[in-house]
Amino acid sequence: MRTNATSRSRRRGTDPKLSMTPMIDVVFLLLVFFVVTIEPVDILAALSVARPQPDSNPAPPPDPGELITIEVHPTGYSVNRSWMGFAEIRTKLHHLGAISTRPGILVICYMDSTHSQLIRVLDLCAEVGFENLSVMTR
């Protein structure tokens, strides 16, 4: 039994080590191979996009004189520099919307005003049907 114990201890020795360097080299070689041999596919050329036909009667741009400025202040609203309550703005915009939905609407929102005030004005413009809306902050 002694001989078996000594032979086992001799066989055990140090654990074998597996070197990672050749594996990493092979991975990089494969990566270089695939990058060099890849054939790029133009995805945009294969897309089938139906583009709208040009409008035969394009709507004329709004007259620059037809600009309605709505200012959203922290304390209230003004339309073309005239202070109004929200109910008055609703009446005025419905009146203007009955005449034309083409005028340009510029909504100027001041930094101190709340988001809900701006949303109320934008919802009102959508309700009336105004098409040319711009929003800016001060």
Key words describing this protein structure:
138 residues, alpha/beta, 5-stranded mixed β-sheet, 5 helices, 43% helix, elongated
Helices, strands, pairings?
Blueprint: H1 2-12, H2 21-37, H3 43-46, E1 67-73, E2 76-79, E3 82-84, H4 86-99, E4 104-109, H5 115-128, E5 132-137
Parallel strand pairs: 1-4, 4-5
Antiparallel strand pairs: 1-2, 2-3
Helix pairs in contact: 4-5
Question: What can you see in these coordinates?
Answer:
The structure is a single chain. The longest helix has 17 residues, at 21-37. The protein has a five-stranded mixed beta sheet. 43% of the residues lie in helices and 19% in strands. It contains five helices and five strands. The chain has helices at residues 2-12, 21-37, 43-46, 86-99, 115-128; strands at 67-73, 76-79, 82-84, 104-109, 132-137. The termini are far apart. With 138 residues, it is of the alpha/beta class. Helix 5 (115-128) links the parallel strand 4 and strand 5 (132-137). The protein has a domain at 65-137: Nucleotidyltransferase, domain 5. The protein is elongated and about 95 Å long.
